[in-house]
C-alpha cells in the first residue's frame, strides 16, 4: 500500500511541528480532509484536536529516538485522533487460550532435518505469496486475517496460485471464536480443517461486521493439519523460511505505525 495512504506527510517532515500552534491546527485540518473525518459538534472536534496534538508529540519523540533506518517509524495515519485507550479498546484484546482439538502437531526440532543452512531473510511478498493489505475496519477480526493470510501463502507455494480467502467466513462461522468481538487463530485453523476448507474472498466478501454463516459456502482451499511452534526464535526462523506463519504481536505501541525505513 502506498505510504501516502498511511500518512499525509513524510514522517521526517513532522518533526518541524510542535504539539501546539496555528501550524498544528492547519495540519489537523489537512489530516481531517485527507481522511474524510467530520465531527458532530465543535466540542468533539476540540477534544479530537487535543488528542491529535498529544499523538503528534508522541510520534515526534519516538521517531527522534530511532537509531537506524531499518527501525519502524510512526506517522499521522488514520488513527491520529484516537487516544491510546480508545485504540486499544477498539482494535486490541487479550489473546484467548485455544481450545483443544486433534488436528494439531507441536513442532519438534527433530521433525525438521531441513532447518540447517537457512537463508538470512525471506520476503514472501517478493515470491508472490502475500495478498494485498486490507483494512479490518471496526471489527476485531485480526485473528481471521492472520489465518487466511497463512493459508493463502501456503496455497500459493503448493499450487502457484495466489487466491484471497474469506475472512468473513471465519468471522461468521467459526463456533470457537467471537466474530468481531475477537477470536484466536488456533481455533480458526481448526474450523478450516474440520470444515473441509474455506471459501474465497470473491465469493464470500468481507463486510467488517458480524454476519450470518453461509452454510453453502464453497470449500475452495483446504488444509489438513496445523503445526504449532514451540515459541523459540529458531523454530520461527525455520518455519518462516518455508511458508508464511501466523504469529501474535503486542500492537499496543503501534497505533501510529506507518512502516519501515
SSE layout:
Blueprint: H1 11-14, H2 22-35, H3 42-64, E1 72-74, H4 84-91, E2 104-106, H5 142-159, H6 167-173, H7 185-195, E3 226-228, H8 233-240, E4 257-260
Parallel strand pairs: 2-3
Antiparallel strand pairs: 1-4
GO molecular function: cysteine-type peptidase activity
Domain Cathepsin propeptide inhibitor: 28-87
Protein name: Cathepsin propeptide inhibitor domain-containing protein
Give a brief rundown of this model:
By secondary structure, the chain is mainly α. It has helices at residues 11-14, 22-35, 42-64, 84-91, 142-159, 167-173, 185-195, 233-240; strands spanning 72-74, 104-106, 226-228, 257-260.
Major beta sheet, strand line-up: 1-4
CATH class of the largest domain: Alpha Beta
Structural class: mainly alpha
**N- to C-terminal separation?**
15 Å
Which stretches are low in confidence, meaning pLDDT under 50 for 5 or more residues running?
A: 1-7
Strand percentage: under 5%
The CATH topology of the largest domain comes to Cathepsin B, Chain A
CATH superfamily of the largest domain: Cysteine proteinases
Give the beta-strand count.
Answer: 4
Amino acid at each position: 500500500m502506498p505510504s501516502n495512504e498511511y500518512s499525509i506527510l513524510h514522517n521526517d517532515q513532522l518533526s518541524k511541528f510542535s504539539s501546539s500552534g496555528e501550524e498544528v491546527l492547519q495540519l489537523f485540518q489537512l489530516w481531517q480532509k485527507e481522511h474524510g473525518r467530520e465531527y458532530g459538534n465543535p466540542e468533539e472536534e476540540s477534544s479530537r484536536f487535543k488528542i491529535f496534538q498529544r499523538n503528534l508529540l508522541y510520534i515526534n519523540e519516538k521517531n527522534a529516538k530511532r537509531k537506524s533506518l531499518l527501525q519502524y517509524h510512526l506517522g499521522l495515519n488514520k488513527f491520529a485522533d484516537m487516544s491510546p485507550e480508545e485504540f486499544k479498546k477498539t482494535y486490541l484484546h487479550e489473546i484467548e487460550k485455544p481450545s483443544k482439538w486433534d488436528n494439531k502437531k507441536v513442532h519438534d526440532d527433530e521433525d525438521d532435518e531441513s532447518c540447517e543452512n537457512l537463508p538470512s531473510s525471506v520476503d514472501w511478498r517478493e515470491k508472490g505469496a502475500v495478498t494485498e493489505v486490507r483494512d479490518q475496519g471496526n471489527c476485531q477480526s485480526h485473528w481471521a486475517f492472520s489465518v487466511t493470510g497463512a493459508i493463502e501463502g501456503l496455497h500459493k507455494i503448493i499450487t502457484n496460485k495466489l487466491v484471497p480467502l474469506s475472512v468473513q467466513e471465519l468471522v461468521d462461522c467459526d463456533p470457537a471464536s467471537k466474530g468481531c468481538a475477537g477470536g484466536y487463530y488456533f481455533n480458526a485453523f481448526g474450523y478450516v480443517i474440520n470444515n473441509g476448507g474455506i471459501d474465497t474472498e470473491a465469493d464470500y466478501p468481507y463486510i467488517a461486521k458480524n454476519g450470518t454463516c453461509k452454510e453453502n459456502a464453497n470449500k475452495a482451499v483446504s488444509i489438513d493439519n496445523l503445526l504449532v511452534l514451540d515459541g523459540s526464535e529458531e523454530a520461527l526462523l525455520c518455519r518462516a523460511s518455508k511458508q508464511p506463519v501466523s504469529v501474535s504481536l503486542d500492537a499496543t505501541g503501534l497505533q501510529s505505525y506507518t512502516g519501515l525505513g
